[in-house]
Amino acid sequence: MTGTLSPELERIVAAAAAAAPAYAATAPADRARAIVAVADALEGARSALVEIGARETGLTEARLNGEVTRTAVQLRLFADTLVAGAHLDVRIDPADPDFALGVRPDLRRLLIPLGPVINFSASNFPFAFSVLGGDSAAALAAGCPLIVKAHSGHPELSDATARVAIDALAAAGMPEGVFYLIHGREAGVAVLQDPRIKAGSFTGSIGVGRLLADIAAARPAPIPFFGELGSVNPVFVTAAAVAEHGEAIAAGYVASVSGSAGQLCTKPGFVFVPEGGALEAGIAAAAAGTPEHRLLDPRISRSYEERRSTILGTPGVRAVVEGGIRFDEQGHGWATPTIVTVSLADFRAGHAGLIHEAFGPLSILVEVPEGTDLAALVPEFFEGNLSGTLHLGAAEAAGTAEHVDELRALVAALSQQVGRVLFDGWSTGVAVTPAQQHGGPWPATSNDSSTSVGTAAITRFLRPVAYQNAPAAFLPEALRDDNPLGVPQTISPAGESQGWGGRWR
Amino acid sequence: MTGTLSPELERIVAAAAAAAPAYAATAPADRARAIVAVADALEGARSALVEIGARETGLTEARLNGEVTRTAVQLRLFADTLVAGAHLDVRIDPADPDFALGVRPDLRRLLIPLGPVINFSASNFPFAFSVLGGDSAAALAAGCPLIVKAHSGHPELSDATARVAIDALAAAGMPEGVFYLIHGREAGVAVLQDPRIKAGSFTGSIGVGRLLADIAAARPAPIPFFGELGSVNPVFVTAAAVAEHGEAIAAGYVASVSGSAGQLCTKPGFVFVPEGGALEAGIAAAAAGTPEHRLLDPRISRSYEERRSTILGTPGVRAVVEGGIRFDEQGHGWATPTIVTVSLADFRAGHAGLIHEAFGPLSILVEVPEGTDLAALVPEFFEGNLSGTLHLGAAEAAGTAEHVDELRALVAALSQQVGRVLFDGWSTGVAVTPAQQHGGPWPATSNDSSTSVGTAAITRFLRPVAYQNAPAAFLPEALRDDNPLGVPQTISPAGESQGWGGRWR
Fold first, then answer.
1. Do B504 and A439 touch (CB under 8 A)?
2. Domain named Aldehyde dehydrogenase: which ranges (chains A, B) (predicted)?
3. Structural domains for chain A
4. Which residues of B fall within a CB distance of 8 Å from A464?
5. H or E element in which residue B320 lies
């Protein structure tokens, strides 16, 4: 991998780099209008796009229609976010002659766009984590030109979606060069290595994510690389939860494991339950009649079949829901959910073979003896994860149960290891909101300083710059005293620096 | 480098890891009190510490006393910052049944401490960027146990400072294991590679910084590494500025280049001035009689002597202030400032040999023909830098000069390349304030998402976690509705999601 660009890629990267200053300088309201126009155009092209997507991915039209809506709403939410301007983190320190360390100059700081970004899109969300997905929305809202590397699982849909974006951005008056689509891993790597590219984002496997993160880090000038990688999303169900709402838990679990054929990074992979199998009948009943679902592509299908066999063949593992996978003549696998159970002792013994993500509709119940230190299981078995979940009984949730301190310790252990801690719900279904966190320590992500879902993702493509004693004529609008953009400004008034820290004596 | 720890290092890293949950859980006011107690203890030990520092580094007692004050104020400022709680970026999305994408769960997000941090301290600021410097203050304030790798240039001072910190933290009731000092690069690398360490920080050379950044990125579980590396800090002086206040510019320039013998990462390395040498007499007059100053150590002294000879020997380079360096019997170099001038054409021709940082009291004037496109010089000659500076005339600053657009283009070019853009001042002297930005694109830093001076640095040692539908009994205090800590909470009320983006049509 040399980083040398083909003439076509050179043209694209040069155009993105040339567009960067003009795009960064667009008025926030104009950029917001352009992004909303893209969202509207996406919904306008909905039926044609969903038809291509269903053919290329095997996902249902209902699911894909929902994803189009989600993707459009996501774009509009980022449009609002960029105009509100809180993400600029504007800080103003007026000059202070009485500053504790001598005269303080006038200092004003904000976040500015990094420059051209490459986004490697995902296979399993052909809209929401693909050409116009969350990473793309965040980069465009931040003010960065974007080059999207299409996922090979839906090339035609990627082209059609990119066409929607390019046309809508041009019609909205955005600079040429703000949006490109490229195909092929080699092309993606070459662009990632180009010095004009200032950040990368990715959703996919740990293996590919690590490869790309290493490339980004090894460049002569390293750049941030935000990879959202693998996750197995441990769940803990207490005895009280089983007793009080076991049936609902069983139904929710099966729905979460089988939705989209389990091909979601937030699928609950391991559920720690009390010994005794009290949930098993409910799980079997809920799973009965789940229709078979095509997996995304033949490679994923074969990989799933292999993982499933390994897990079923591990000593101590017993099927609660057998499920299965059959292959059609195109090599596509069609799967029904498989749910197995194993004792904690056998899980501990077979853990090396069981712990890795099974991408598809399979999940593992781990039966835990009464009195087990649940908090200790988290670091024993898990690295970083996108989510961790607890199902509690009513007294436990109210904090009045006798063992509430043990449960608090479990919550603390999970928050050390995951990006999102859920109570009495399922981790699939990630709301796009300001407070969402879709991330977590390695290997859930390659960079855990941000999120890949929700508006906080916009800061991934920004960096801080301060202006010292700048005349008003040279200040960015967001930093001016008259604040023409109406963004939040955190002002540290002169004279307040004298008492620093004194009250903590 | 295997990452295997000696028994002593194993004890230290294990203790830091064991202390992490307890330290993260300390009440903010208690942590603030402990940090202020450290600041007070540092000032209490001032005279003994300054005596050791002066002997080990050759820096003057006046400078070191100022640095102790700065370091103590910095600690107290971080104490205030951590209690104020804005750095937690608390976001609360109450549950919303009418959410645009279906029922929105209750989501609450904040930033939590990363865990144990290793900080590699600097040679040139034995207090402010060393054992209790800005990186250390930020990590301790964030709630992360800290292991400091001492700089080999002031080992005795490092030990004495660490003793002050350890005693004060213990007396303030902080958990054991929150603070350690280690010596030796091998030990530092081994700790950086340990999986229990969650972030690294560094101030020093590009070469060492790159080595450490690569180690952090290559770990089985990569971690963020915040290196503040090299910078040459370009300055542009317009003809109007020379005409209106040339004498003050000359005096300020010489003071900025010669202070601390030029051993500052913010020293102005290149000053672009109008052709004609109008500043030269003023510079020579200001430099006359500058006393010689010992450089930090023999290695830096030899390296400076070599850089100085290379620069003086480059075709077209002429000394404005000759200066010099002599060596004492211990091998320490004693330098007086050297300021040279070169035409833009000769600079362009000899640029490969001239452009790298000369760590010491040397700076280069570049004489620019009238009509030169100044903005174009920035990307032609410079990579990322900590700062860039403009000196303007009054009409230019007011924005009424005819060529104001050219100056705006220069400001835009600088802000693409630097962390701080200054007007009519000098980049040495970095105020410790909320709006300060001490960073910049590679190679100014290895990670340009944050700052190494000012309170914004605290976010480097934090990561986000969200809680979904958490019962109040399990929420961190900062996320609770009754907000017992009184931290800023950004609330996205239910019902407001319906209109997203709609007004941008």
1. no
2. 8-309
3. 7-229+449-462 (3.40.605.10), 235-423 (3.40.309.10)
4. 419, 437, 439, 448-451, 456
5. strand B318-321
